[in-house]
Design brief:
CATH topology: Lipocalin
Low-confidence stretches: 5-18
Number of helices: 1
Mean pLDDT: 87
Strand order of the largest sheet: 1-2-3-4-5-6-7-8
Number of strands: 8
Largest sheet: 8 strands, antiparallel, barrel
CATH class: Mainly Beta
Helix content: 10-25%
């Protein structure tokens, strides 16, 4: 009986632990039009979290370049661009890294948290979190 209870608890722990992760594919939604603009895949590498653009929804923008980016990213294709860099998990949020906005080429400090099942809150800011912008991304349904 104890073994069965242990297996059930272990199953639910694994299920809830995986649902509390930002790893996976997320839809970036335009705040004005409410349309999905792109799909970003978030992954973990050496204990840090990164996100790259793996799909651009507008066929006219699929070959767009990051013209306003600086340095090595200048004029690189937006498709495949790593826009989330170096986040670390701290309690119930991922923080300590940056997010790049390919529309203006600027990098911002970044914090991510999970709001609800399938909804991620991404906060990009300069200096203090008070001075920034929040975006909500939807998890891509993998079914």
């Amino acid at each position: 009986m104890k073994a069965k209870t242990l297996y059930i608890l272990l199953f639910f722990y694994c299920f809830t632990a995986s649902s509390q992760s930002i790893i996976g594919k997320w839809e970036s939604v335009n705040e004005e039009t409410k349309k999905v603009e792109s799909v970003i895949e978030i992954y973990e590498k050496s204990g840090k979290y990164f996100g790259k653009i793996i799909e651009i929804k507008d066929p006219k923008k699929k070959d767009a370049l990051c013209k306003l980016c600086d340095g090595a990213l200048k004029n690189k294709p937006i498709l495949g661009l790593v826009i989330i860099n170096g986040l670390e998990k701290r309690k119930n949020e991922w923080t300590g890294g940056t997010v790049l906005d390919p529309k203006n080429g600027k990098k911002y400090k970044c914090t991510i948290s999970l709001e609800d099942k399938g909804i991620m809150k991404l906060r990009g800011y300069i200096g203090f979190s008070l001075f920034g912008r929040t975006a909500y991304w939807n998890r891509v349904n993998t079914k």
